[in-house]
Amino acid sequence: MWRKHFAAIFLDMDGALLDSNGHAEPVWEQWAHQRQIDYALLRPRIYSQRVQEILRQLTPRYSDDAECQRLEQALLAVVRQRRSRLRQDAAAWLAMLGETPWGVVTQAGQPRAAEQIAHSGMCQPPLVIGAEQVSCGRPDPEPYLLAASHYGLDPRDCLVIESDEAGIRAAQAAGMTVIALSCRRPRHSLQCADVVIGGWRSIILHPQPEGIVVEVIA
């Protein structure tokens, strides 16, 4: 059994908390087809990295701000039409956090994140770090460092729950402990995390006067 005390918990949105599969694929596939780009190169990253990082790294000729904004607006239009679903057991798990400092760190722009949260039935997070708030997204540690600084905490005292390798690398580079949920990726691709689990029921929370004790059960 794995058990550890933390001052705050930060959560990945797409993949870990919300099931958004099928939302982004049509937008990215159409965009790639129109520009004669191999969509297969883009697909593994569309739920784990910001639009900006994907374009800069894989299609630099199309990475200007205007192109990024067009893609983000197209993705926003899709989530307004198709609701993201809260993962099984996630709502009850979030309720167990009590007064613990927590937040969502996402590759989505703030309007898209707000739309997904509002329509998923998820409680409103006290903190949402979106694409516009950082200059570099996953796998850069900036989003998670910003989340820790919001609460004035040492990143080493923070836990991250992620669902993708880019997010795991970002959190670890920030100095945080990472639990990976294998709800979207195969377990072997997440072994770089400190702990890998299959679902929210495996994480038991014990709120304390200061911080929270997190216990992982098999």
Can you offer a commentary on this structure?
It holds the Pfam family Hydrolase. One of its GO terms (molecular function) is metal ion binding. It comes from Edwardsiella ictaluri (strain 93-146). The protein is α/β, with parallel strands linked by helices and 218 residues long. The protein has two domains: 2-20 and 84-216, HAD superfamily/HAD-like (Rossmann fold, 3-Layer(aba) Sandwich), CATH 3.40.50.1000; 23-81. The chain has helices at residues 25-34, 39-42, 51-58, 65-81, 90-95, 110-120, 142-150, 165-173, and strands spanning 2-6, 8-12, 18-19, 85-86, 102-105, 128-129, 158-162, 177-181, 195-197, 203-207, 212-216. Helix 6 (110-120) links the parallel strand 5 and strand 6. Helix 4 (65-81) packs parallel to helix 6 (110-120). The protein is globular, with a radius of gyration of 17 Å.
Quick summary of this structure?
The protein is an alpha/beta fold. It has helices at 25-34, 39-42, 51-58, 65-81, 90-95, 110-120, 142-150, 165-173; strands spanning 2-6, 8-12, 18-19, 85-86, 102-105, 128-129, 158-162, 177-181, 195-197, 203-207, 212-216.
